Amino acid sequence: MLLNLLLVLEIIVSLALVAVVLLQRSEGGALGMGGGPGGFMTARGAGDLLTRTTWILGALFFILALTLTIISGKQRGASSVVDRLNIDAINPNTLNKNPPQPPAGTAQPANPNAAPAPLQAPTPTVHNPFLGQEAPQPAPVQPAAPAPAPAK
Questions:
Q1: 83: Cα within 13 Å, side-chain hemisphere
Q2: Could you give the C-alpha distances from 22 to 15, 64, 141, in angstroms and in order?
Q3: Nearest residue to 136 (alpha-carbon basis) of 124, 150, 151
Q4: What stretches of the chain adopt beta strand conformation (E)?
Q5: CA 84 from chain center: how many Å?
Q6: What are phi and psi for residue 108, nearest 5 degrees?
Q7: What's the pLDDT tens digit per position in 83-131?
């Protein structure tokens, strides 16, 4: 409940801070609200008020942000995500009891307990064209067999 109240206050303070910053006189004076000689406030007085208000709202914003962080951290506790997983209760013998089945239509190996054949990387070849060594010729590509004609 307190966290929600502080969050609403943080949003209100941030909106007020945005409004006060936009009301201040910019370097070019485009958004400034300084009064002229006929205004109810002088330009210096309006600048001092807006500057002071900006400092107060900025300080409130940071204090509320720190308070929200501290309170939410205490509500969650000091445990990490890994501590909450309860890994000690997992029995490693039951993890791979039912291995995933391959999709239907794929060829099953003759011996399901046999390990798959390891992949063999091609032998690297190094050639230096500056020493007159020729680049190895790539193996010719065998054309694929034509597709069978559709039955009519």
A1: 5
A2: 11, 22, 69
A3: 124
A4: none
A5: 23
A6: -90, 140
A7: 667 666 677 776 666 656 666 666 655 666 777 777 777 777 777 777 7
